Amino acid sequence: MNRRLPGTFNQCQRHLFASSNHPASPAFATRFLSTSRVNYERQECQVLVVGGGTGGCAMAAKLSSRLGSNKVIVLEPEEKHYYQPMFTLIGGGMKRLDQSHRQMADVLPKKAKWVKEKALEFDPDNNTVSTSGGNTIKYDFLVIATGLQLKYEKIPGLVEALETPGSNVCSIYSPKYVDQVYECLRRTYKGNVVFTFPHCPIKCAGAPQKIAYISDHYFRKMGRRNDVNIIYSTSLPVIFGVKHYADALMKLVKKRNITLNVNRNLVEVRHSDNIAVFEDLANPGKLYEETYSMLHVTPPMTAPDVVANCKQLVTPTGFVDVDQMTLQHNKYSNVFSIGDSACTPNSKTAAAAAAQSPVVFKNLIAAIEGKPPTDIYDGYSSCPIVTGYNSCILAEFDYNLTPVETFPVDQAKERYSMFFMKKELMPVLYWQLMMKGYWNGPAFMRKMFANLKFNKK
Asked: Which residues participate in catalysis according to the annotation?
């Protein structure tokens, strides 16, 4: 249950800054208390949300609704907000790119202030963030929701291959390249069609094999499958981290005659020769060359440089150093993180951000009230693994890689109902509920079905 804030904003601030362990400066507290609203000319706010992606928008909506107008600033340079889970469907020709985005101004809550600039430097010791517009934003509380950055350039030859007209190299992960995927499918008639998974944390870890399964179905529909050899090369030692779903996917791979290579990491693309070079991670230094007719690449990903460069905020791997249960920073009690930028060991998906959003919200409000965090994130994530043009396996699991299934059926089975939900219902839920701060994941549905005590079949 949400706790009610003190009656006025000034009362809240007096209570907050009376706490001896609060990191905000007394000078800022005095200035902040002297005004009845945020002074945007001086770029000061009660809560600064850095990032206007899935987690950032959800948090901005929740916080501005609770705290009121002129208390929340969102720092985000992009004009468009993309619903990235749709990119796989775009790659398979089931959706269009223009269906995947909205204008950022229409997505962000009206009660929040949008600063259309990029974060350049975090200074958590002084509660400030400097921006690309030459401004410094002073905050009371900070929510880091910067997501991951795509690092195509880390693979030699890849950017050149992607940007060469008519290239048979593609990737669903960027709006810049996603349309090329379906174009590559349409002009591929034979040979090796290779899909990769990099040696690093990525957003939506199921997507690299989703597009492989969709491609398999496409070639079957077009009558080309006998002339195409589909190869899925993953840097992971297994096809999927949760055994319940991995077992089902292994059966699917064998049934569809897809070649699976594990511990294989793409290290170079020679697009003029149509050769992909992989390193065998089980035997470091050992390289394999694979000739391809089509190559789909999942790029390496990292935390954004501006986050990773602030050593006070991050772990050695560059992700925000938060408690994996409360999502509060382990050093700075006025800092929280949500989504892909956090160091939490969950699968990085929009569903994870949805489940994290009420935890961050409730624990941040508790911090504002001078109380310890009490809400817990269990690592819930969901991955609708689309296996073709009419089927999907809905994987749901927690930190322990234990299935946490919502529906009263075995979700490891391919089902049209799950495909319809992924393709048609989830985008509506995303735009109409999550972006407005109303969607916290399907936990309430899971409880409802559990109380009905269905037997799974």
From this structure: 204, 383
